[in-house]
Design brief:
The protein is about 30% helix and about 20% strand. It has helices spanning about 30-45, 90-105, 135-140, 155-160, 165-170, 190-200, 205-220, 270-280, 290-295, 355-360, 365-375; strands at about 20, 25, 50-60, 60-70, 85, 120-125, 125, 240-245, 250, 265-270, 300, 310, 315, 325, 330, 335-340, 345-350. The strands form 6 sheets. A 5-stranded antiparallel β-sheet has the order 4-3-17-16-15, with helices on both faces. The chain is globular and about 55 Å long.
Length: about 375
């Protein structure tokens, strides 16, 4: 049965400060809602996606802004409180469960993976006797990303899932990218292995652990781990999702390319995702000592990423000096990103992968609208 949607109160947040011109004439600035609307419109246009939804949460107030089309057939916008496949944002939930197990004394962050998965992490891509749980969660293991060996350039390929063990072997059968702990390199294989550790330690599927440990206690009623492959249609109101296959835009809304895997399986809403990240940063998901471990960062070492890597969290500093945290997720038909502090969180969901290079050529910075939301005063 689909979860019962929470009622969202749409709060029109405005900026109360007054700007002074050079002639000392007071001028009323545009409201935050208007500024974010303009920024989101520019992001949608510059990135070449059908549409987007921005959700900003502060306290009990929620501001929702839509841009473009959530459905190209009807030209309707994203529905209120739209559910989306959050892709790699799932990793923040999985990491949080692992840190709960650390707090319970059931997992040691600096223990070798071999202790929990004997014989599993062996091959040219990595040695489980050397790689630690921390290395997995922080992308410092050196294990190559299995995704680079998958051809997902067709609808048929998206509909042909592979077992998690086979995907892990794809990563381990390649030559390791670097020595464990030497540097960082984002690899989805790390979180497939982390999910296996959670399951071995708890005896339950990782999706069940995320649900009972995080979703239920926080009341995230619009967030769930799909029962793949039986369940592929998103349960609640949602936008249509599109992907460009060799110049042909295809509606892939009802194809779950996450395959139920711990590197990107989950479905959520902007409001729920905001609530999760704020609760995490407030210390309501993991203990203080475990949160401190999650927030110990290393440079990403990736020219495509300006953020530092924590354990299931990315960190960066906004233009106004705020220390922001989050993750982000990219998958066929979805692009979900944002940022959070303990007091405020913003999530932007797009229903097609953005043309990043095209956006840059058009002087569109997708991060600007997130930065504006986090830095707004009022």
């Amino acid at each position: 049965m689909p979860p019962i949607p929470r009622t969202i109160a749409l709060l029109a947040v405005t900026v109360t400060a007054v700007l002074l011109t050079a002639g000392s004439t007071a001028a009323e600035p545009a409201s935050l809602q208007d500024r974010l609307q303009t920024g989101l419109d520019e992001s949608v246009s510059g990135a070449g996606v059908p549409g987007a939804q921005l959700v900003l949460t502060e306290g009990d107030g929620i501001l929702q802004i839509n841009s473009g089309a959530g459905d190209l057939g009807s030209n309707a916008p994203f529905p209120d409180n739209a559910q989306v496949r959050i892709a790699s944002n799932t990793k923040a939930f999985v990491s949080s469960v692992m840190l709960q197990l650390v707090g319970e004394g059931r997992v040691d962050l600096d223990a070798p993976v071999e202790r929990y998965l004997p014989g599993v992490v062996q091959g040219p891509g990595g040695d489980g006797n050397v790689i630690t749980i921390r290395n997995l969660l922080q992308h410092t293991s050196g294990i190559p990303d299995y995704l680079t060996d998958l051809n997902l350039d067709s609808v048929a390929a998206l509909q042909q899932p592979k077992p998690v063990g086979e995907l892990i072997r794809l990563g381990l059968d390649k030559t390791k990218d670097f020595e464990p702990g030497e540097r960082s390199g984002y690899s989805n294989t790390n979180y497939l292995i982390a999910g296996q550790v959670v399951e071995r330690v708890t005896g339950l599927p990782v999706g069940v652990e995320v649900t009972r440990r995080i979703l239920i206690p926080l009341g995230l009623l619009d967030t769930y781990w799909p029962l793949y492959p039986a369940e592929q249609v998103i349960r609640g109101p949602h936008a249509r999702a599109y992907h460009d296959f060799d110049g042909n835009l295809v509606d892939i809304t009802d194809i779950d390319a996450g395959w139920g895997l711990p590197d990107g399986a989950m479905v959520s809403t902007g409001a729920d995702l905001n609530r999760f990240f704020m609760a995490l940063l407030q210390g309501r998901v993991v203990g203080a000592a475990e949160l401190a471990q999650m927030q110990r960062t290393v440079p990403s070492g990736d020219w495509r990423r300006s953020e530092d890597f924590g354990l299931g969290l990315f960190h960066w500093t906004t233009s106004c000096g705020i220390q922001a945290w989050g993750h982000g997720g990219t998958m066929h038909g979805t692009f979900v990103y944002g940022g959070a502090t303990a007091e405020r969180s913003v999530t932007v969901s797009m229903n097609q992968l953005p043309d990043i290079l095209g956006a840059r050529a058009r002087n569109t910075d997708l991060d600007e609208v997130v930065d504006a939301a986090l830095c707004a005063q009022g």
